[in-house]
Structures are given as C-alpha cells and as structure tokens.
Design goal:
With 254 residues, the protein is an alpha/beta fold.
Length: 254
C-alpha cells in the first residue's frame, strides 16, 4: 500500500468500530468463511418459526440479512452502541431489541420461543436457552471455537495456554447442551484461514474484537505493532486461523 506505519495506525485507531460490520477491512484483511453458510441456514429456520430470539445480536447485521422474520422477533444485545445500531436496523422490520447484560436470566418468560439463534455468542447460557425454548423448539448457532486466531494474540501476548476441552470446545458445548436437557442434532467444526495485509487492519480488528487482546491500545502495543508492520512488509500478509463450530440442539417434546 506504500503508506507509513504512523499513517496506517492513526487511521485505524480513529475509525468507528461500532456494530458488527467488518466491511472497513475489505481489501485489507480476509477470513475464510465456514462451508455451511450460517446466515442462509439461520434464515431458513426463521422462515419456519413463529417466535424467535437472536441472542447477542451485535449491531443486528447478521439477523437483518434474513429475508423474512417470524411474527414475533426479538434480539438481545449488551453494548450500548450496538443496541442503538441494532434498534435502527431491526425496528423498521418489526423486531424488538432488548438491552440485556448477556448474563442469566434472559429477560423473557419460560417457553417464549420456538427458535433461539446466535452468531458468535461470548457465552452460551445453556439452561437459560433451554428455559425460553418451547418443547420441540431449537437453538441454532455458530460459535467461535478453541484457539481461534491464536497466532494473533500470541504475537502480542506471547505463548498462551492452548485449549483442550475448554469452554469453547465443541465437545464442551455438546455436553453442556445435553446437561441442560437439549438434544444435539448437528455439530460441525472447521479451521479457517485469516490474512492481514497491513498493520491498520490488525489495529481495527483488535479494537473491534476486544477480547482477543483484552488490554489492547495502540500506545500500549506500538512497538509490537511496528514489528508487525515490518514483518508484513518483508514477508507478506500475516496469516492466522480462526475456528468455528455450528451447533443445533432441540428441546424434547413432553
């Protein structure tokens, strides 16, 4: 791109990171998408539902990609900028957005929904999901898997403990769903290539995905960011790998 380190970093540090739209990274970073196509499969299920809930909806961008909503459509989100963005995006389509702390209990009655969805929930509160599902209802979600983008956070933080059967492992999710009384119908896992083509793309990513390097600021990590800038200039894109798993679980009929 023939732009200076200071220019790239300053630009990425100033741009808004509200919402869950990564289009600012177009041409500057890429991430391989899972083969199953979560948004399409979610939309198919929304089209068959009568009452649905999208947990941790972010700015509502993924949910808004569905061509139709069920008669009752609700979403939760905790971060105020995202609540405002999701409200503006989803309210015109008849969906209600509820500001929620992303901790139990969910602000809904027992057996309120026949479909619960979530893309990349920070935590899946399985007993709460089971509580708000009607008998025969399903939870359909794409989760971030174990050691996702490990190359990124270890570049900044140094070697970290790697997940074996930790909270983000698909086997852990299967066991937790079953313990909450849900039957797992489908579980798929993939490891996917990520590329960062300039240091500004990394700054934007770390400002947006705040749990990746929890104490990240440009000033705190300026020296390491400069190392990354020089590495990309010498060797090409910085490559990492995300992990994702798809899970679908049903609440048994009585």
């Amino acid at each position: 791109m023939n732009r200076t380190f200071d220019d790239l970093v300053a630009e990425a540090d100033a741009v808004s990171v509200a919402g869950w739209d990564f289009s600012w990274l177009d041409g500057r970073a890429s991430e391989q998408r899972p083969s199953w196509g979560y948004q399409r499969l979610m939309a198919e299920r929304l089209g068959r539902a009568s009452a649905a809930l999208d947990i941790q909806t972010g700015g509502g961008e993924v949910l808004a990609g569905a061509p139709s909503f069920p008669p009752v459509m609700a979403a939760t989100e905790s971060w105020p900028p995202n609540v405002a963005k999701a409200t503006a995006l989803l309210h015109p389509r008849g969906a209600v957005v509820v500001a929620d702390a992303d901790e139990p209990p969910l602000p809904f009655a027992d057996e309120a929904f026949d479909l619960v969805t979530s893309r990349h929930p920070v935590t899946a509160w399985w007993h709460e999901i089971a509580r708000v599902l009607r008998p025969g209802g399903t939870y359909f979600s794409q989760h971030v898997g174990p050691d996702s983008a490990v190359e990124v956070y270890e570049f900044f933080l140094g070697p970290q403990p790697h997940a074996d059967r930790g909270p983000r492992h698909p086997d852990t999710a299967r066991a937790a769903a079953a313990e909450a009384g849900l039957d797992v119908l489908d579980l798929r896992y993939e490891r996917l290539r990520m590329e960062f083509h300039d240091v500004g793309a990394m700054v934007y990513f770390l400002r947006k995905v705040i749990w990746m390097v929890p104490d990240f600021t440009v000033e705190r990590y300026r020296d390491r960011l400069r190392d990354l800038h020089e590495l990309i200039a010498a060797e090409g894109p910085f490559v990492a790998h995300s992990t994702r798993f798809l899970i679908e679980a049903r609440k048994p009929l009585r």
